[in-house]
Write a structure and sequence with these properties.
Structural class: alpha/beta
CATH architecture of the largest domain: 3-Layer(aba) Sandwich
CATH superfamily of the largest domain: Response regulator
Number of domains: 2
Strand content: 15-25%
Helix content: 40-55%
CATH class of the largest domain: Alpha Beta
Oligomer: single chain
CATH topology of the largest domain: Rossmann fold
Radius of gyration: 17 Å
Distance between the termini: 23 Å
Number of helices: 9
Strand order of the largest sheet: 2-1-3-4-5-6-7
Order of helices and strands: HEHEHEHHEHEHEHHE
Largest sheet: 7 strands, mixed
Number of strands: 7
Length: 175
């Protein structure tokens, strides 16, 4: 949320595209709402339970006067990773995602765990299990490496300037 606030001057209303049928969605909504409140932003959720509901959700987001959009993880939003950035851009909405895959299809920004690093870390688990450790005895690890990605082409299309401090924080900026 902070990244969107830094990227979009005067931001006050943010849409959160979710699939309410996913069990962990409530947790993501609560955490995102807390961040929005802390930043003085109004957060409103919009539902897309299937691929067919994504475009109508973006129509509702635009009609509601939202100024930017972020998306929940997994499921429908991952399946629509190529479509969602196009829908956001067509409506003039800056999109912040949590996955490189959505970012690579045109999201303005992405901030989330480095999935490649997580895959490397998973080999440690495989090694331990192959050496006889019981999976239930291996402690769960949380991601420790996160990446901020900025799409300069999308920023230009939206008429946004990337502040210097955001450029300095970015792990990668693409044209």
């Amino acid at each position: 949320m902070q990244i969107l606030k830094d990227l979009v001057p005067g931001l006050s209303r943010v849409a959160f595209l979710i699939n309410p049928n996913v069990p962990v969605t409530r947790m993501f909504v609560d955490v995102t709402q807390s961040a929005a409140t802390e930043l003085g932003l109004q957060l409103r959720t919009f539902d897309a339970r299937s691929i067919d509901e994504v475009e109508p959700a973006f129509d509702a987001i635009a009609k509601a006067g939202m100024q930017a959009v972020t998306i929940g993880q997994g499921g429908v939003n991952f399946q629509a990773r190529a479509t969602i950035p196009k829908l956001a851009l067509a409506r003039g909405l800056p999109l912040c995602a949590t996955s490189r895959e959505t970012f690579e299809h045109g999201a303005l920004a992405s901030y989330g765990p480095d999935l490649i690093e997580m895959c490397y870390r998973s080999t440690v688990y495989v090694d331990k299990i192959l050496k006889g450790a019981k999976p239930g005895d291996i402690p769960v690890e949380q991601p420790t490496k996160f990446e901020l990605l900025i799409n300069l082409k999308t920023a230009k299309a939206l008429g946004l300037q990337i502040p210097l401090h955001v450029q300095q924080l970015a792990h990668e900026m693409i044209e």
